[in-house]
């Protein structure tokens, strides 16, 4: 790993892997280099396959993330373009393929517009045509809605981002991404083990909301009102619902999910109470189906 310094004084961590024609990845929001070093499947598998195919792959961490300078005032598009300029200059690249995923795709397009002679190919993965349309995606709305908790509860916020990134489909990968985000951002937190993700798979009728209630104060002591029960749960990947909840470490809790309709009607799930013993350390994932 090496560092390049941008024209506005930001140190950007980068790495060059393999030999052959160069392909530069304009870093995604989490930092492509740290994603690779932490073994995130999408970054690791894509990079290794390209290297095996004879490409020279250049990865870096966008300003504010990973191993690059984190206390940075300008993290907008103009600043991210300076990151690309710095890495390209440090490696003396005259012409190269440029790729980007998600926000990295926007950076790649903007850089290419101003540097067409340098860019041999432009590869865009999961790009978007406008910020308004991008932020209209339910999963992104869920993530941005929780942004204000990032400084108070970084593990919880990392957990949410990991869940969104995996579309709530792979609990083990969520664990990996959460740990990776925690490491990448340099966050620190205690090991009280009270933050847990409750996941539920159930269809609903229009206007229905899902809430959580249970036998502890944190779970509202079986309250079934809109203002009293825990929720509503979020569903960026319908019919998968989720909510991050703090519960007492080391305690066995009992809980159920309820549906609250637009007219206030409450529907309990059938069957026995769900039971969960909260670990004494780490982050827990409680994944259940609605009991009919």
Sequence stretches where pLDDT stays below 50 over 5 or more residues: 183-194
Instruction: Give the count of structural domains.
Output: 2
Can you tell me the CATH topology of the largest domain? Immunoglobulin-like
The CATH architecture assignment of the largest domain turns out to be: Sandwich
Question: Could you explain how this protein is built, in words?
Answer:
- The protein has helices at 32-37, 41-52, 77-90, 103-114, 131-135, 138-145, 154-165, 171-185, and strands spanning 2-5, 11-17, 22-26, 56-60, 96-101, 119-125, 195-201, 209-214, 234-237, 240-246, 252-260, 266-268, 274-277, 284-289.
- By secondary structure, it is an alpha/beta fold.
- The chain has 2 domains: 2-127, 3-Layer(aba) Sandwich (Rossmann fold); 138-289, Immunoglobulins (Immunoglobulin-like, Sandwich).
- Helix 6 (138-145) runs antiparallel to helix 7 (154-165) and helix 7 (154-165) packs across helix 8.
- The radius of gyration is 22 Å and the shape is elongated.
